[in-house]
Amino acid sequence: MENFTFYAPTMFVFGDGEEQKTGELVRHFNGTKVLLVYGGGSVKKNGAYDAVTASLDAAGLAWEELSGVQANPRSGIVYKGIEQVREEGFDFLIALGGGSVIDTAKAIGFGACYDGDFWDFFTGRAKIKKTLPVGVVLTIAAAGSEGSDSCVITQERGNLKWGCPKTDLIRPKFAILDPRLTCTLPASQTANGAADIFAHICERYFSPTPDVALTDRLCEALMKTIVDAAPEALAHPDAYSPRADLMWAGMLAHNNSCGVGRVQDWASHQIEHELSAFYDCAHGAGLAVILPAWMEYVYPKDPMRFARFGTEVFGCEMDYARPERTAREGIRRLRVFFKSLGLPEKLQDIGGRLEDVPDMIEHRREKPNGFPFGGFMKFGPEEMEAVLRLSAE
């Protein structure tokens, strides 16, 4: 295990009806004037909006709202939110929604504290030194942004889906996680969320770092939980227990508690960001296409790691004489699992086209230090192209 520093200051408030404590928690963290950030009408249909706004009113907090956040969150609404904060003097942000809403609120928070363009943080021209506090009321188990130090935004100038450098400064002050709020999600969003959570774990699990038994087991426990809970949540949308397991797994998958002390990969995410940028597909759907293709391409580098994945997560029988067989069977079962959730299988299923591959690679080159990437195996343009082509087979 490598040396590490782990700092995760977010307060988590978990359970049925806990969104009624939103105002109390804003007060606890010294907020007085709140900008409530959310997406569309789903938070009004499931009752989250009414509960949160009633809580803000009960706490005597002034608040206004900013709605319209989309999946693969855009820079336009970030700029709008920054302007709103500066004009109205908000001192606290509440993100009511999933990862796209949370990342939008994070970007507004550090963008409003900076005199230049918030995108400077994404290009490396500036470093985040200050941000407004963000609180979260989570409505989708997926991105894990409620506990993470990361933020991904699509810059509409150039259609660039990039993440800013990670920093603990942007971890939310608090996150309210009520599994009941996810019961009304469309099946596709539940499935996409499960794929996103699973991929976050894989990005940490597939590592060249030796002697990381504890975090290996944490990763495997989380992946097995997703394999059990996601089908149950789809079959019984109102069931609390699988929703609760998915919601807490989503947080643990991305607050880095199972990634410390080991080299992490992130190649699948980097490739998928190009799919989201080009086709505006759901992030989880894109990962369901890319992750198994990435596995097919890289497993010969360490067949035993993938064989362990197959045996520990999917219960494959270990072939000690030919571990590559077990490795391939584990990858096959992952594909079957994703398919059972109704997720896309191939590049074409999300509107992708092989003729776009060269453009995606060139698009990737625009990112500072765009190549090479990946911690399990270094990826240049040739490797990225190979995985994209495998995803279409």
How would you characterize this protein structure?
This protein has 393 residues and is α/β, with parallel strands linked by helices. The relative contact order is 0.11. Strands 1-8-5-4-2-3 form a six-stranded parallel β-sheet, sandwiched between helices. A two-stranded antiparallel ribbon has the order 6-7.
Task: List the main descriptive attributes of the protein structure presented here.
two-stranded antiparallel ribbon; 8 strands; alpha/beta; six-stranded parallel beta sheet; single chain; 15 helices; about 400 residues
Summarize the structure.
The chain is an alpha/beta fold and 393 residues long. It contains 15 helices and 8 strands. The strands form 2 sheets. It has a 6-stranded parallel β-sheet, sandwiched between helices.
Topology, pairings included?
Layout: E1 11-14, H1 22-28, E2 33-38, H2 42-45, H3 48-58, E3 62-66, H4 75-88, E4 92-97, H5 99-111, H6 120-123, E5 134-138, E6 152-155, E7 160-163, E8 174-177, H7 187-205, H8 213-235, H9 240-254, H10 267-279, H11 283-298, H12 303-314, H13 323-340, H14 357-365, H15 381-390
Parallel strand pairs: 1-8, 2-3, 2-4, 4-5, 5-8
Antiparallel strand pairs: 6-7
Helix pairs in contact: 1-3, 4-5, 7-8, 7-9, 7-11, 8-9, 8-12, 10-11, 10-14, 11-13, 11-15, 12-13
Query: What does the average pLDDT come to?
Result: 97
Q: What's the end-to-end separation, in Å?
A: 37 Å
Poorly predicted spans: none
Task: Name the helix and strand elements from N-terminus to C-terminus, one letter apiece.
Answer: EHEHHEHEHHEEEEHHHHHHHHH
| Shape annotation | globular
Sheet of most strands: 6 strands, parallel
Query: Can you give the helix content as a percent range?
Result: 40-55%
Strand content: 5-15%
